[in-house]
Write a structure and sequence with these properties.
218 residues, mainly alpha, Arp2/3 complex 21 kDa subunit ARPC3, two-stranded antiparallel ribbon, 6 helices, globular
């Protein structure tokens, strides 16, 4: 007479997702989620709960956590904007004659959702490709976390360049001719460190947790 695994798994899933969502809210709404950065876009830890969710719970829950990341970002950029470029993330914020629009929502949500998608799919693919490699876990977790984070950075920076290049440069007070240099510097000073943190957290957190949870669920 087997126990009732489905309710137990559902409760465990809800508990894990809720805890990660609470952490996501903390890093989005408090200064605990901000890192010093040289570029105009603040480096953040907000991508890490999304990566962890995708690796622990799967691609779809990871995408859902990415949606919450985007939603929390929209709230912050609308009501407590950290700088004059908040309009690139919120259609409800404006600076002078410049205001956000539909593309603000796209930049705010799509890259964040895709953190979970790319992380989860990368993990599944790399687990198969590197299945016969000894000590593959660090590579599988690390690369998955790195790719998920870089997906967010590249799409956000690319979206700013494509849809808000001139207003973005005007809001920060530099020539539009320097837009690629500024955004490229942001990738180097913020995006890559964030991706490295994502890679480290993916392995350091998810590997031991999966081992513990496997024993609990057995």
């Amino acid at each position: 007479m087997s126990a009732k695994p489905a309710p137990r798994k559902s409760v465990l899933f809800l508990a894990q997702f809720s805890m990660l969502l609470a952490i996501e809210a903390i890093v989005c709404f408090t200064s605990l989620g901000s890192l010093p950065a040289f570029g105009p876009i603040v480096a953040t830890l907000s991508h890490i709960p999304v990566i962890i969710t995708a690796l622990l719970l799967g691609t779809v829950p990871g995408a859902a956590m990415g949606f919450f990341f985007g939603l929390f970002s929209l709230i912050v950029m609308t009501f407590t904007p950290p700088g004059p470029t908040a309009f690139v993330f919120s259609p409800f914020y404006s600076v002078g004659e410049v205001s956000g629009n539909f593309w603000s929502l796209a930049i705010c949500f799509i890259p964040r959702i895709l953190i979970g998608v790319v992380t989860g799919l990368s993990f599944r693919l790399l687990s198969k490709i590197l299945a016969n490699l000894d000590k593959k876990d660090a590579l599988v977790y690390g690369i998955s976390g790195f790719l998920g984070s870089m997906t967010n950075t590249i799409l956000v920076v690319g979206g700013i360049f494509l849809f808000f290049g001139k207003p973005f440069s005007d809001a920060l007070g530099f020539s539009y001719d320097l837009i690629l240099d500024v955004l490229g510097g942001t990738v180097l000073t913020s995006g890559i460190p964030e991706a490295v943190l994502g890679a480290v957290a993916a392995y350091a957190v998810c590997k031991p947790l999966k081992t513990i949870l496997a024993k609990y669920q057995s």
